[in-house]
Amino acid sequence: MKKIKLFILTIVVALTSYGFTTYKNDFFEIAKQIEIFTNLYKEINMNYVDEVNPAALMNTAIEAMLNDLDPYTIYWNEQEIQNARIQNSGNYTGIGAEIISTPESILIRNIQKGSPADIAGLKIGDKIISIGDIQVEDYNEDAGELLKGSADTEVILKVNRNSEVETMTLVRGMVEEKAVPFFKLLKNNTGYIVLSQFSRSASSEVIEAFQRLKEEGATQIILDLRNNPGGLLSEAVNVSNIFIEKGTTITFTKSAIEKYNQTYATQNKALDTEIPLTILINENSASASEIVSGSLQDLDRAVVIGSRSFGKGLVQRPKKLNYGTQAKITISRYYTPSGRCIQALDYMDGESIRKEKNEYTEFKTKSGRSVYDGGGIKPDIVVDVEKESKLVKALKKENVIFDFSVNYISRNRDLKLENFKFNQTIIDDFKKFIKENNFKFETDTDKKIDELKDIAESEDYLSSIQSSLIDLQKELNKEKEEAFQKETQTLKKLITENILRIIGYDDAVYTYYTEKGEVIDRAISLLNNKNSYKEILGYN
Known about the structure:
Elements: H1 2-47, H2 54-66, E1 74-76, H3 78-89, E2 91-94, E3 97-101, E4 106-111, H4 116-120, E5 127-131, E6 134-135, E7 154-161, E8 164-171, E9 173-176, E10 182-186, E11 190-194, H5 202-215, E12 220-224, H6 233-241, E13 249-254, E14 263-265, E15 277-281, H7 288-298, E16 303-306, E17 314-320, E18 326-335, E19 345-348, E20 351-354, E21 362-364, E22 370-372, E23 381-382, H8 390-397, H9 400-411, H10 424-436, H11 444-458, H12 462-486, H13 488-516, H14 518-528, H15 530-536
Parallel strand pairs: 11-12, 12-15, 15-16, 16-23
Antiparallel strand pairs: 1-18, 2-9, 3-4, 4-5, 5-6, 5-7, 7-8, 10-11, 13-14, 13-18, 17-18, 19-20, 21-22
Helix pairs in contact: 5-6, 6-7, 9-13, 11-12, 13-14
């Protein structure tokens, strides 16, 4: 027994010494910083002139620490963990509306057809100003949480619609958020499937849509991943598996920690490895969407059409913390079968830095086509209308296109789906709306001109170069006006989408895509031309 104890003690000492030697620098530095922080935290709580909220103070410290990393490494409190579970399940108890919380109200951004919000009479563009007895502007927390509750419970809402206040009774209920909200058989026996998110039911819903379309006569498929922000990596593999044979690598991950290096291969028998396939993406297609489009592009199984994807090649994993909280930490990068990582941004001291084209590395697809890393997934066929310039992004960020569309509907209350036609008058009205609402598109050049003015003024040169700076600003304003003209087609598409969604839900938007969408037309044309399709994939 003594010998056994001595042997165990020797092993423990050896392992401890190894760990101490390997990690001692980090250990002492971490211990030192935690001790300093703990003492500071205690002194502030005990001695600060005003009363402080310890929990709020700690949340601020946590957020500030994580801000120095990438934006996907985040801290979740108990409520946020529950919300994440709900989102991934695809089913939740609520009202069935996409909302934006502001200090004054809750803005209804989108409504699911047949949902509790829809049944209650809420419309896109409505502003909820009170929930029960609580005024939104007086509520210090996220007022959107007040809309959630047990199924079949009622809540009284006061809603501002077109500057008129209405009272509505809303009954909460189970809301099923479909991963495949729309699919349809189009001309030339083309099956069209929209996949909006990679929730737990994503692959099963795609399979169901695919099988039904084939029963209806589909001989070629369009899988629409535009505006799909991603979701579960496992579902990305399962969706790819529908078209890729069992045992094929779809993605693999690399990390600084060996155990996080994993390969994800298809596990099931494919449904169809031969049917011609196109995938639609845009700048809002991210993460799992990029795994599917990138892997099927690398394997020469599908032609990718649209605009360059978002470029998120980072993998997160939740780590349990104390008291029911979690941290979602970036642990690795994922790579497509050819070996490329599509991550478009590097992060240094909390700042994002976009990779330059000269930093991209060339890789080869299964048939030898050239593809590149570092900038998202570049489509095989680029469609300009799907690209979003800085001007368009600024308009979307400030909700200008959305607000204009709501305003347009309020001025045309009798507008019906069958009567709506986009025309030049709408673009002219949009320009007026921008001016009336004082939208200012500030470019990097504008910022540099302002910086130059400040420097010139501090060095007493401003008076001598003032006229030159004014002329420069005038020329820049002309360029910005021309930029607006160049974006007419993209703005037409975005405004039309918003107006149709208000009067006909998401279904109207998807129908518009199938009837007037340039990207879908390009996809159908390619699928109908078997030689061009094969040539792009490197089969000729």
